[in-house]
Amino acid sequence: MAIDRREAIKRGALGVAGLAAAARSLEASRFHQPHDPALMGIVGEVTRAGIDPVRFLEEFDYGRVSRLPSGKTLREYEITAMDREIEVAPGVWFPAWTYNGQVPGPTLRATEGDIVRVYFRNAGTHPHTIHFHGIHPARMDGVFEVVVPGDSFVYEFEAKPFGVHLYHCHSVPLKKHIAKGLYGTFIIDPRSGRPPAREMVMVLNGFDTNFDSENEIYAANTVPFAYQKHPIPVKLGELQRIYLVNVLEFDLINSMHLHGNFFYVYRTGSSLTPHEYTDTLMMCQGERHIIEFTYDEPGRYMFHAHQSEFTELGWMGIFDVQGEAVA
Fold first, then answer.
1. What secondary structure letter does DSSP report for 326?
2. Which residue from 74, 75, 77, 95 is spatially nearest to 86, judged by alpha carbons?
3. 3-class SS at 20?
4. Which of 19, 189, 314, 315 has its CA 20 to 30 A from that of 209?
5. Do 289 and 320 meet the contact criterion of CB atoms below 8 Å apart?
6. Which residues make Cβ contacts (< 8 Å) with residue 247, sequence separation at least 6?
7. At 108, phi and psi to the nearest 5?
8. Which residues make beta-bridge pairs with 288?
């Protein structure tokens, strides 16, 4: 069942006034109840999205690990492109093209200097590739090495530079292959590591459910309002680190706004020194950053796109900060 933009707003939102009401009543509201008049949301649960957005936040695929004769670490991954219908809102199905049957694809993780080997198989009905952002030889770029249905290809390269990157299909028409779901996050950790933190991945995406080149649904990690229905628990005073990736198609920019707090921005995650301290971050497609923050007061705090329409159509959530307030 396809829905247009107007119908999506009617089903999933109370409008901009709902945001203001939510801000006034964060503590009093029961956010997990879809009938709560203070917040936007969709009645019903999405149960067959291809991912569990709560689990996906902290799922990292480190690959099969072995040691090469050179002493370098080898990480091997298997990725299969396949067609799969996924539920993107209650009762709304989307004919996705997926990596390993899910949107986003698995979050791949390595350390700078590791050898990454990805066994890619195309079990779909269209030609596909994997293009990794980062530094690698031209023959591993996933642009000219198109993999037709039933065929396979092995990508191999040294993981560099450290940072938060992405991977996606680069077959043409490129916008269709991205809009249909062929993308994921690729994290390369610095050799020295980063300070201890609770780590999460948020892939900002959307879905054009009626194929008019406009998104009817927006989300972090595919499922609209997932983190409103299931607020993310946060420990008071604990450092939170989010690997934030924007792959939204059809809209020029996306954004992340955090309520009641500021965050440090590490642009592309390619430095251990923050570039900015802010509460709103604007991102074009393909941009990705690490953001870090702590909360010093308990309570429930919204986070969402600061394009109000995106928020009304699903890109919003709640951090549920728990613990004793600092005196």
1. P
2. 95
3. helix
4. 19
5. no
6. 104, 166, 168, 178, 183, 203, 204, 205, 285, 286
7. -85, 140
8. 245
3-state secondary structure of 21: helix
CA distances from residue 82 to 44, 177, 204, 208, 298 in whole angstroms, order as listed: 27, 12, 21, 19, 43
The closest alpha carbon to 217, from 35, 2, 57, belongs to 2
CB 166 within 8 A of CB 245: yes
Tokens linked to 304:
């969402």
Tell me the pLDDT of the chain (327 aa) as tens digits. 666 665 665 555 433 333 333 333 333 233 334 445 556 777 788 989 999 999 999 999 999 999 999 999 999 999 999 999 999 999 999 999 999 999 999 999 999 999 999 999 999 999 999 999 999 999 999 999 999 999 999 999 999 999 999 999 999 999 999 999 999 999 999 999 999 999 999 999 999 999 999 999 999 999 999 999 999 999 999 999 999 999 999 999 999 999 999 999 999 999 999 999 999 999 999 999 999 999 999 999 999 999 999 999 999 999 999 998 655
Structure tokens at 266: 């590490």
| φ, ψ for residue 6, nearest 5 deg | -65, -45
Q: How far apart are alpha carbons 327 and 325 in whole angstroms?
A: 6
> How far apart (Å, rounded) are the C-alpha atoms in residues 179 and 99?
13
3-class SS of residue 291: strand
- 3-class secondary structure, 62: coil
Is 18 strand, coil or helix? helix
Domains of the chain: 5-48+195-322 (2.60.40.420), 53-189 (2.60.40.420)
- What lies within 8 Å, CB to CB, of 228 at 6+ separation is 31, 39, 40, 41, 316, 317, 318
Helices then strands (H, E): number in the chain? 6, 20
Please give the sequence-ordered ranges of beta strands (E in DSSP) within the chain, or none if there are none: 64-67, 73-89, 92-99, 108-111, 115-122, 131-132, 152-158, 163-168, 183-189, 198-207, 217-220, 232-235, 240-246, 253-258, 263-267, 276-278, 280-284, 288-293, 299-304, 316-322
